[in-house]
Amino acid sequence: xxxxxxxxxxxxxxxxxxxxxxxxxxxxxxxxxxxxxxxxxxxxxxxxxxxxxxxxxxxxxxxxxxxxxxxxxxxxxxxxxxxxxxxxxxxxxxxxxxxxxxxxxxxxxxxxxxxxxxxxxxxxxxxxxxxxxxxxxxxxxxxxxxxxxxxxxxxxxxxxxxxxxxxxxxxxxxxxxxxxxxxxxxxxxxxxxxxxxxxxxxxxxxxxxxxxxxxxxxxxxxxxxxxxxxxxxxxxxxxxxxxxxxxxxxxxxxxxxxxxxxxxxxxxxxxxxxxxxxxxxxxxxxxxxxxxxxxxxxxxxxxxxxxx
Length: 308
Fold this sequence. Notes:
Radius of gyration: 19 Å
Distance between the termini: 39 Å
Structural class: alpha+beta
Number of strands: 14
């Protein structure tokens, strides 16, 4: 572990560590578990205007598991998304983040997270096209592990590579390999220590807190990758999207669908991004039914839940 914490229950820690280091099927075998699987759609933008749209270019999932143990609650959160090169004109991109948050009576006491994503430096459609033409038999990934506790945060970033043939369609093979590479490389990785006493949450935990908060306007801080961020959001009704979700059989109560218009902003620096998510208020499964964000100036992505 990265911090000395006599107060942190050893049995709870071992359960948390097992969840973080288990292969994917073992993690998802734990109950109770909430999960949504998504279809990914992409829009290519030119000067912020859509010039090409394609549905089903990849997929994703979100999952959550909550345990209560000795007066503490332990919530494990996961989100993954990636492209299918056969559907995305050869583009092979994938990202995954997993967090475990331990909460005491006073709020989050500790957050532990790991994640990885394909290294992608393209800032324009032309650069993305050039990168596809130069792709080889290996794919570069950026990995991260981090921990937030008692107002201090520490993270390590690493790089590793996988065969280029491993993509979203083979995620269950890629996941345990990536986790192993992160654990092996992390002691030699780039380390960042941050004192952020106002933040005890990591990214996914902040998103779930935003969904659960009944207030129309919310604001919270979180730490990820050695930086402190602010998440501001406003909740609104959205009859148009609610009707489409109902028509697809994704909700029986379209009047309960809430759209969250959010913004992520680094507290130090100018980097920021906007997103929108839709969820069903009062549902036993609060995970989003639809997610929209723009990871690049030329690319917008939407993830809509699959009907099950």
